[in-house]
Amino acid sequence: GGAEELASARSKEAEAEQARREAEERCAQYKALVADTKREKREAERALVSLRKSSDAALALFRKEVEKEREGREAAEKMVDMAAESLEDETRERRERERRLKEEIEDLKTDAEEERGAMEARIAELERRLRLVQELTAGSS
Q: Which H or E run includes 56?
């Protein structure tokens, strides 16, 4: 019976050794898996930081473009306003010039009519004198 017990003990010892090796192997696999997972996590975190930086940079660039567009639009609006004001000023000045010219024309017409009236009165006076002189000469001859 001693040989059987010895064989049984050796068999149990071999099984225990096999179980220990399998447990160590599984432990090594778990450790490798944990290390891989930690490495992947660090890589993902680095990628996330990099992505945040690039998206922040892209957003800043986009904001700058939007600001430039807004400034361009405001400048264009200001130019349009200035052109409109300038046009209004020119129109106002032109109307004022036209009004002054009309006044001047009216003044000239009035002056011309007054002069014509004065000339007509003078002609009438000269015609009256002429008749008077003719009557006097006719009477003396």
A: helix 2-140
Kindly state the DSSP code that residue 43 receives in the 8-state scheme: H
User: pTM for this structure?
Assistant: 0.40
Q: What is the pLDDT of residues 2-40, one digit of tens each?
A: 888 888 999 999 999 999 999 999 999 999 999 999 999
Rounded to whole angstroms, how far apart are CA atoms 141 and 134? Answer: 11
Q: How far apart are CA 61 and CA 55, in angstroms?
A: 10
* Tokens representing residue 87 in the block: 């046009």
Q: How far is CA 25 from CA 14, 30, 40, 105, in A?
A: 16, 9, 22, 117
Alpha-carbon Rg for the chain in angstroms: 60
> What one-character-per-residue DSSP string does 100-131 give?
HHHHHHHHHHHHHHHHHHHHHHHHHHHHHHHH
Question: pLDDT digits over 90-131, tens only?
Answer: 999 999 999 999 999 999 999 999 999 999 999 999 999 999
d(CA 139, CA 37): 149
57, two tokens? 């940079």
